[in-house]
Amino acid sequence: MVIQSNEKGNKKYYNEIMYIASNYYIFKKRPRTKVHSLLNLFVIYMILFIVLFVICLIFPPFILFASMALVLFAMYVYLFFETRYRLNEYLKNDNSEIVVDEDGIESRYPGKVSAKLYWDSIEHIIINQNSISVLPYNFSSIIIFMEVHSKDELLKALKKYDKLSLVVDNSKK
């Protein structure tokens, strides 16, 4: 079964998949984890480090901690802008095709690259508010993402291949 994905330009979708990709190890252990905006998370961390820096400057014995807070703040500023850059680059990508067959799930970008996860290497298929993530057992494998609009087609295909046990549905608010 071929599922056409039209994720091009959907910022909520890309924000969600970037959060999942950057917190992959958490979702492997606890697939019911709630998805947040990665950019908002970076802003919160930056504010916390600024507060920590100011508090450390007020008390002279903690000047060393202030410098550490400043370094961490700079690191999060870099990560914030790197994430925004990647988000903008993802928004330029073409739409993909998801192929579900008896062997596994494959993501194809026509004329570009394709990647396949076989059924025995898939640990979870997590359905969130804006995306569906196919997480492999192995940390070095790829994660396949698709828009949540494909949910019914995917569930029909998973039922056909008797793989509904892999699904974790977090799409309920």
Summarize the structure.
This protein has 173 residues and is of the alpha+beta class. The protein has helices spanning 11-22, 24-29, 38-58, 63-90, 151-160; strands at residues 2-4, 97-100, 104-108, 114-118, 122-127, 131-136, 144-147, 167-169.
| Alpha carbon gyration radius | 19 Å
Major beta sheet, specifics? 4 strands, antiparallel
Strand order of the largest sheet: 1-2-3-4
The sequence of SSEs as H and E is: EHHHHEEEEEEHE
Uncertain segments: none
Q: Tell me the fraction of residues in β-strands, as a range.
A: 15-25%
Measured as a percent range, the helix fraction is 40-55%
In DSSP terms, counting alpha (H) and pi (I) runs of 4 or more, how many helices? 5
- Helix/strand-derived category reads alpha+beta
CA(first)-CA(last) distance: 29 Å
- Number of strand elements: 8
Mean pLDDT: 81
Morphology call: elongated
3D structure, described in words:
This protein has helices at residues 11-22, 24-29, 38-58, 63-90, 151-160; strands spanning 2-4, 97-100, 104-108, 114-118, 122-127, 131-136, 144-147, 167-169. The relative contact order is 0.19. A hairpin with a 3-residue loop joins β2 (97-100) and β3. The radius of gyration is 19 Å and the shape is elongated. It is built from five helices and eight strands. The mean pLDDT is 81. Helix content is 45%, strand content 21%. It starts with a strand and ends with a strand. The longest helix has 28 residues, at 63-90. The chain is an alpha+beta fold and 173 residues long. Strands 1-2-3-4 form a four-stranded antiparallel β-sheet. Strands 7-6-5-8 form a four-stranded mixed β-sheet.
